[in-house]
UniProtKB/TrEMBL annotation:
Residues 157-302 form the Putative amidase domain. It comes from Polycladomyces abyssicola. This is Putative amidase domain-containing protein.
Length: 315
C-alpha cells in the first residue's frame, strides 16, 4: 500500500488506469491525472506501447482477465511546497486466458514522476521510466573461486534447476553475485550456472565466460548482452545452438534482443514457461519480469527494427 502523501492521488490514479487498460478501455484515459500544462510526449509513447500490447493480445488469442499493482515509494525529492519528484516501484501482476488456460505475468518497474500543485489540485507534470542508477542500492558480494564454480558441473544442463533459479531470483538479487545497473545478462548467466553450465575461466575479460567477484572480476560475456550473445554463437561451455524460431526453444534456453536492429544486442532473457500456443514465456532482470511473452512488444525499449536470436542450450 502506498504511504499517503499530498501528491499520492494522481499517481494512484495513473496506476489504476494502467491496470484497467490491461483489460479494457482506451489509451486516451492516461491523460486523466496529467496537468493541463504537463508534458504530453511521455503519455503518447505510453499510448503507443498499449496499442502494441492490444495487437499482441489479439494475435495470441489472449483474453485479459485482471491486473493489479502493489506500489512502493523508493525515493522522493521535495522541490517546493507545490512540486516534488517521486520514484515509485510498481509490482504489477497480470492475469489472462488462452484457450481455456489461465496465466499469470509479473513485472516490477520503477517510474519517476514530477508532480505539481496547480489549479487547486495535485497532478502529474511529467513521467518516465527511472534509470537504475537513480534508485537501486549497491549490494555487498563475495569472491567466488574457480574450483567452487567448476566442480560437479559437467553433468549436462539441468533445465529444471535453471528455471527454478530464475523463478527464485526474478525480482531479487543473489548476494553471491554483483548487481549491475543493467542486470539482464548477469541474471541469465547466473541461471545457466545454476543449471550446471560450467564457467569458462580465462585471464582476459574479453575471453571465456566467467565470474570471480566484484570490482570487474568478470568477463564481458558474463554481464554484457552483446558479448554473451557472441559467446553463445560460438557454442561455448553451454554448447549453444542457434535455432530459427522461438517455438523451437526449450525451458532454460536463451533469447537475445537487438532493439534497434543495429547488430549490437541489448538484452537477454531465459525461457521459464510456454503458453498453450507453444510460444515461450521468459524471465528477465533490468525491468524485472516473470513469464513475460518472449516478443517484448509491450516493452518501452521495443522498436519495429528489433532483431532476435534464439539459442538452445545443449549443456
Amino acid at each position: 500500500m502506498m504511504e499517503r502523501r499530498p501528491w499520492h492521488q494522481p499517481i494512484a490514479i495513473w496506476f489504476q488506469i494502467q491496470n484497467r487498460l490491461w483489460v479494457e478501455g482506451e489509451p486516451d484515459d492516461l491523460y486523466e491525472p496529467l496537468l493541463k500544462d504537463g508534458n504530453e510526449a511521455w503519455i503518447q509513447l505510453e499510448q503507443e506501447r498499449l496499442r502494441r500490447l492490444r495487437l499482441q493480445q489479439r494475435e495470441r488469442n489472449c483474453h485479459p482477465l485482471k491486473s493489479d499493482s502493489r506500489l512502493r515509494l523508493v525515493k522522493e525529492k521535495i522541490r517546493s511546497d507545490e512540486e516534488a519528484d517521486v520514484w515509485m516501484i510498481s509490482e504489477h501482476r497480470m492475469f489472462y486466458e488462452i484457450h481455456g488456460d489461465t496465466y499469470e505475468e509479473e513485472e516490477a518497474i520503477c517510474w519517476k514522476f514530477n508532480v505539481r500543485f496547480s489549479e487547486g489540485k495535485w497532478g502529474i507534470a511529467d513521467g518516465r521510466l527511472a534509470e537504475p542508477s537513480e534508485w537501486k542500492e549497491r549490494t555487498r558480494v563475495t569472491t567466488i573461486s574457480e574450483q567452487e564454480e567448476s566442480a560437479g558441473t559437467r553433468q549436462g544442463y539441468n533445465r529444471a534447476r535453471a528455471v527454478q533459479y530464475a523463478e527464485i531470483w526474478w525480482n531479487s538479487y543473489n548476494p553471491r553475485y554483483s548487481r549491475f545497473e543493467v542486470d539482464c545478462t548477469n541474471y541469465v548467466s547466473q541461471c545457466m550456472v545454476a543449471g550446471g553450465i560450467p564457467m569458462n575461466f580465462t585471464s582476459r575479460r574479453d575471453r571465456g565466460w566467467w565470474y570471480r567477484g566484484p570490482h570487474e572480476q568478470w568477463s564481458y560475456s558474463w554481464a554484457v548482452a552483446d558479448s554473451l550473445k557472441r559467446y553463445l554463437a560460438t557454442g561455448g561451455t553451454a554448447r549453444a545452438v542457434m535455432v530459427d524460431r522461438p517455438d523451437q526453444l526449450s525451458l532454460g534456453d536463451i533469447i537475445c534482443y537487438d532493439w534497434e536492429g543495429s547488430g549490437r544486442y541489448d538484452h537477454n532473457t531465459i525461457v521459464t514457461a510456454f503458453d498453450n500456443n507453444g510460444m515461450p514465456l521468459v524471465n528477465a532482470h533490468t525491468v524485472n519480469s516473470r513469464h513475460r511473452y518472449w516478443e517484448y512488444r509491450d516493452s518501452h525499449a521495443w522498436t519495429p527494427r528489433v532483431q532476435y536470436r534464439f539459442f538452445h542450450i545443449q549443456g
